């Protein structure tokens, strides 16, 4: 048998080599290998296994107590909730407020909308009619007071344009007055409409004769007076509408 | 592990997830390394009962 290898000698020392019997026999016969084995055994025999010391009593408890005082304090409860990312800390509160506001809004008794806030179409019509009567009255006053001393034809182009504008509105208001059953107003608006039509459809250079004829018609029908009366009635109705809730006032 | 704790080759190979042959080779190489470092010390102080630094002092 050849000499033992270092690996065989070392493993034989630990009793882990293969062919222990053969190795043992060889060591008995081979002086060199036995000397090598004795050197290994002597060396390893001097290395005593290190014994792991047993921890003293309450070692774990003492270690934990020492560590516990040095650890950073962990937040808990309310502080932890608010210490965690500040931008999200108030989010649950905001959600709660929204839910509470929504619930209260559903439960809270609703107020009926006030008259002042609600648009009143009848009042709007009355105001418009009042404005129409006022403008018509001004036009008629201008015509009545036009200077005719020179005996020449007067330029009525401006008045004609006004009369055309008033004529369209007058037609609508007259129909409205008839619709709501207010014959007095409808009759006045009808008379006014004829005069406005005559002005609007007449020549722009109004001869004194034609002007006199128009004036006569206005005076004979007492149109200015009627317009004033109806205008004042409309104004009073508008004021009444402002103070009282919407009713079924006639134009 | 083999010398200090007295574990067998099988136990060491299982603990370190190594093959038995690889474990044997590791033990061999570890002892060789010890010999390389400790043999000169033994030659210098042959009467020392234990290798310095390997005594059980704790």
What does this structure look like?
The complex is a heterodimer of chains A (251) and B (58). Chain A is rod-shaped. Chain A has twelve helices and two strands; from the N terminus they run ααααααααβααβαα. Chain A is 70% helix and 2% strand. With 251 residues, chain A is an all-alpha fold. In chain A, strands 1-2 form a two-stranded antiparallel sheet. With 58 residues, chain B is mainly alpha-helical. Chain B is built from two helices and no strands. The A-B interface holds A 6-7, 10-11, 14, 16, 40, 43-44, 46-51, 53 and B 2-6, 8-9, 24-25, 27-28, 31-32, 34-35, 38-39, 42, 48-51, 54-56, 58.
Keyphrases for this structure?
heterodimer, A: 251 residues, mainly alpha, two-stranded antiparallel ribbon, 70% helix, disordered C terminus, B: 58 residues, 57% helix, elongated
Any chance you could write out the topology, listing elements then pairs?
The complex is a heterodimer of chains A (251) and B (58).
Chain A: H1 6-14, H2 20-29, H3 31-46, H4 59-70, H5 77-83, H6 86-89, H7 91-107, H8 121-144, E1 154-155, H9 157-180, H10 183-201, E2 205-206, H11 208-220, H12 223-243
Antiparallel strand pairs in A: 1-2
Chain B: H1 9-16, H2 20-44
């Amino acid at each position: 048998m050849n000499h033992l290898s270092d690996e065989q000698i070392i493993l034989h020392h630990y009793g882990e080599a293969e062919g222990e019997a053969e190795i043992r026999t060889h060591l008995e016969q081979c002086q060199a290998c036995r000397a090598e084995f004795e050197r290994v055994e002597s060396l390893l025999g001097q290395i005593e296994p290190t014994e792991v010391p047993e921890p003293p009593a309450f070692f774990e408890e003492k270690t934990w107590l020492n560590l516990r005082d040095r650890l950073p304090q962990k937040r808990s409860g309310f502080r932890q909730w608010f210490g965690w990312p500040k931008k999200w800390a108030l989010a649950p509160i905001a959600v709660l407020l929204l839910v509470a506001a929504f619930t209260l809004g559903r439960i809270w008794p609703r107020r009926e909308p006030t008259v002042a806030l609600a648009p009143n179409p009848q009042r709007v019509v009355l105001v418009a009619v009042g404005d129409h009567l006022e403008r018509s009255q001004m036009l008629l006053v201008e015509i009545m007071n036009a200077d005719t001393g020179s005996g020449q034809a007067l330029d009525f182009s401006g008045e004609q344009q006004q009369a055309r504008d008033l004529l369209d509105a007058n037609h609508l208001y007259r129909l409205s007055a008839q619709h709501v059953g207010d014959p007095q107003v409808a009759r006045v608006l009808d008379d006014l409409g004829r005069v406005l039509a005559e002005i609007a459809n007449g020549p722009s250079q109004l001869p004194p004769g034609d002007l006199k004829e128009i004036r006569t018609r206005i005076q004979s029908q007492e149109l200015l007076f009627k317009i004033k009366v109806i205008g004042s009635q409309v104004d009073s109705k508008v004021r009444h509408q402002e103070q009282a809730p919407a009713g079924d006032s006639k134009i | 592990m083999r010398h200090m704790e007295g574990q067998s080759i099988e136990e060491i190979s299982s603990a370190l997830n190594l093959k038995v042959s690889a474990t044997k080779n590791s033990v061999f190489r570890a002892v060789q390394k010890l010999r390389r470092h400790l043999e000169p010390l033994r030659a210098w102080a042959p009467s020392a009962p234990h290798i310095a630094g390997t005594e059980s002092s704790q």
